[in-house]
Amino acid sequence: MSVVDFLHLLVPLHGDPRFLRGPLWTSWQIDPTVLLGVLGLAAAYVILTSRWNERWTGIPDRQVTGAQRRSFLAGCVVILIALGPPVEDWAALLVSGHMLQHLLLMFLAPPLLLYGTPAWMLAPLLKWKPVALMGYWLTRPVVAFALSSLVIIVWHLPVLYDLSLRVEPVHIVQHMMYLSTSLLVWWTLLGPLPAWPRATPLVQCLFLFALTLPSAVVGAFLTFGPVGYYPYYTTVPRMWGIDLATDQQVAGLMMWVLGGVIYLLLVTVIFFRWATREEEGERQGEPPPAGVIEHPA
Fold first, then answer.
1. What residues does 167 pair with on adjacent strands?
2. pLDDT per residue as tens digits for the range 50-96
């Protein structure tokens, strides 16, 4: 008996894609735990940033801008879209559908959540020295790069990738690891806590460029590697008549090209904003500001 077969006896399956049918290939049923979790996160944020909370706590300086509120709630919506129908059902049928799900969790939800999080909301974490120390080191570029790269590479190994699609608890762990390590990655650009500082502009550029490498390796292998690299997808219905070879190549290009383009665009923006500020600082005879990406207090 294989490891996967043994786990099937212990835990519920992720879901049976054979029940999905056209034209949209979705059951339009969302996992209650996903719905409750995301709504709970959004509700907690609204309560903590409301005027009612200021009156209740007696702390008047707990301010948050409208842009922050919209950003955080948009991040919650992105998570709901990524983990709900139809994307969740498409991920069970297409390698590219699963890749779309992961890109939403890695590239869109984390920056929206971080931008919307005021510093005072995380400041209580600094009261515990072990937490403060761990948070500082986890948000350093080298550590964030190592952890995020490891997560991307390990979870794209066939045995773990297939296991995540067949066993729901493993799938949940996979998504949580993608989201959490991506938050560490985006912290270098948008982290709100001065105690866990963002990287300097040049380090940000090097960091983002380095992040294109693990995505490129995995993406290139999926694009040019053997068809059926993930055996799970050889057993499910072919959605909209998309053959497995095309599906796998599209997934590889999504990670390789789309992910790389996003990182390189950020490098370009950061570099030119830094160069502009340095030039303005030289004209004024003052050192340029340390930060590059503005973040509300």
1. 13
2. 876 655 444 556 788 889 999 999 999 999 999 999 999 999 899 99
pLDDT tens-digit readout, 14-27: 556 766 777 888 88
3-state secondary structure the chain: CCHHHHHHHHCCECCCHHHCCCCCCCCCCCCHHHHHHHHHHHHHHHHHCCHHHHHHHCCCCCCCCHHHHHHHHHHHHHHHHHHCCCHHHHHCCCHHHHHHHHHHHHHHHHHHHHHCCCHHHHHHHHHCHHHHHHHHHHCCHHHHHHHHHHHHHHHCCHHHHHHHHHEHHHHHHHHHHHHHHHHHHHHHHHCCCCCCCCCCHHHHHHHHHHHHHHHHHHHHHHHHCCCCCCHHHHCCCCHHHCCHHHHHHHHHHHHHHHHHHHHHHHHHHHHHHHHHHHHHHHHHCCCCCCCCCCCCC
Nearest CA among 155, 82, 92 for reference residue 113: 82
Q: With respect to residue 12, please indicate whether it lies within any of the assigned structural domains.
A: no
Structural domain boundaries enclosing 49: 25-284
Residue 47 clears pLDDT 80, i.e. is over it:
yes
Please indicate, yes or no, if residue 6 is contained in any of the structural domains. Answer: no
Query: Could you give the count of Cα atoms lying within 13 Å of 89 in the half-sphere of its Cβ?
Result: 19
> What pTM was estimated for this model as a whole?
0.86
Burial of 55 (0-12, 13-18, 19+ CB in 10 A): exposed
Provide the residue type at 62 as one letter: R
For 167, list phi and psi in degrees, rounded to 5.
-120, 115
- 289 located within any domain: no
13 pairs with which residues across the strands?
167
pLDDT band of 5, cuts 50, 70, 90: low
- Look at 117 and 295; give whichever has higher pLDDT: 117
In-domain check, residue 165: yes
Domain total in the chain: 1
